[in-house]
Every structure is written in C-alpha cells, then in structure tokens.
Amino acid sequence: MALAITDATFDEVVLKSDKPVMVDFWAAWCGPCRMVGPVVEEIATEMGETAVIGKVDVDAEGDLAMEFGIRNIPTLLFFKDGQVVDKHVGVATKKQLQDKLAALM
What we know:
CATH superfamily: Glutaredoxin
Number of strands: 5
Low-confidence stretches: none
Shape: globular
Mean pLDDT: 94
CATH architecture: 3-Layer(aba) Sandwich
CATH class: Alpha Beta
Number of helices: 4
Strand order of the largest sheet: 1-3-2-4-5
C-alpha cells in the first residue's frame, strides 16, 4: 500500500530515503488521479521492498504541492538521494511508472 505522506513526514519518508521514491500528488475530486491511483497502489505492493511509493493529497498538503510547483494533477515525482530526478504529469501506464522507477535502482 502506498504511504500517505504529509508535510510532517515528507523529509523522513522521501528526502532521507535510501531507496528510490515515487510520490503521487493527487486529489480525491480529480478524475485522472482516480485512474492512476490503483496503478500506484499496485506498484507499491509489487515494489515496496525496493522503492518507497507514497501519495500526497494536494488539498490537505497544499504547502508541499506549492513547494514542488505542482500545477496539474496527477503529478508523479521521482526522487533519488533526496533530489527530484524525474517527473510525470497526467495519466500514466503501470509500465511507464515502473520503467521510471527501475531507472533509479
């Protein structure tokens, strides 16, 4: 299951992770987010041992969304060693997201 990431947990879970991290910035009212959500959950189940998979609700965590310049959702950011190294905006296939994560391993 993907981790619910908040402003309070972001540094520890994302920036200090020794694994690659994929963060899904989403909102409950967003149709495309609801399409990507199950894919993110599948990846979290399958790759949870080798990568950190998390979700940030932009309505609840607006400061995080602003900090990373999130203007459209869903936006998926990929982190390695505490830095954003890749980004995907909009709906993505499972393979597209897995390939982006695999490139960081």
